[in-house]
From TrEMBL:
SUPFAM superfamilies assigned to the protein according to its UniProt record, in alphabetical order: lambda repressor-like DNA-binding domains, RmlC-like cupins
GO cellular component: cytosol
Signal peptide start-end: none
Occurrences of domain HTH cro/C1-type (ranges): 7-61
Official protein name in the record: Cupin domain-containing protein
Domain of life (superkingdom): Bacteria
Classification via CDD domains: cupin_XRE_C (cd02209), HTH_XRE (cd00093)
GO molecular function terms listed in the Swiss-Prot or TrEMBL record: DNA binding; DNA-binding transcription factor activity
Keyword annotations from UniProtKB, A to Z: DNA-binding
Gene3D superfamilies: Jelly Rolls, lambda repressor-like DNA-binding domains
Family matches, as SMART domains: HTH_XRE
Length: 186
């Protein structure tokens, strides 16, 4: 764990000096310096005092870096293509069990010739265009601003009905990281 670096980053972002932290916690500046450089590991009680002085939850200081907020800038998005119709998929962000994607379907394009299924649950929002979503015996025509959800283990498909590109925002949730498919399968 890199608790010291987290403490330093928070302190600097909030424009708090080491002296101010020491005044609030009763700790020495030398000790705080060692904490921030990860040369010593403070007790939970001491971390709780530091967290209170920084006005952050103790649990935040104990979180692993990979569990903290993750930011993907627009220009950093990973873009892939999927299926025979080469749907453009922009991978927006994700967590261990969830992915968020923006999918562009060219006019008349679909997610495949036949409905498909996979583990997980999906929620969709039509950002632009008009699509038809089909799952089993259910079918719905959806336009900009409409949304829908389904259990992805039931065969399903999506097709663009509009003359232009349709764009769909998709969130995929699975019980475990290993169940997330590497590419788009809406």
């Amino acid at each position: 764990m890199d608790i010291g670096s987290a403490i330093r980053a928070i302190r600097k972002r909030k424009n708090i000096t080491i002296a101010q932290i020491c005044e609030a916690t009763g700790l020495s500046q030398g000790f705080m310096s060692q904490v921030e450089t990860n040369k010593t590991s403070p007790s939970i009680a001491t971390l709780d005092n530091i967290a209170a002085a920084l006005n952050v939850p103790l649990t935040y200081l104990l979180m692993k870096k990979e569990n903290r907020m993750s930011v993907v800038r627009k220009e950093e998005r990973k873009a892939t293509t999927s299926g025979s119709e080469k749907l453009k998929v922009e991978h927006l962000s994700g967590t261990k069990n969830m992915r968020l994607m923006l999918v562009e379907l060219p006019p008349g394009a679909s997610t495949g010739d036949a409905p498909h299924a996979h583990k997980g649950q999906e929620s969709h929002m039509v950002i632009r265009g008009e699509i038809v979503a089909e799952q089993g015996e259910d079918s719905a025509v959806l336009e900009e601003g409409d949304s829908f959800s389904w259990d992805a283990c039931i065969p399903h498909s999506v097709k663009n009905l509009s003359d232009g590109v349709s764009v769909v925002l998709i969130a995929v949730y699975t019980e475990s990281e290993s169940e997330l498919e590497p590419d788009f399968m809406a």
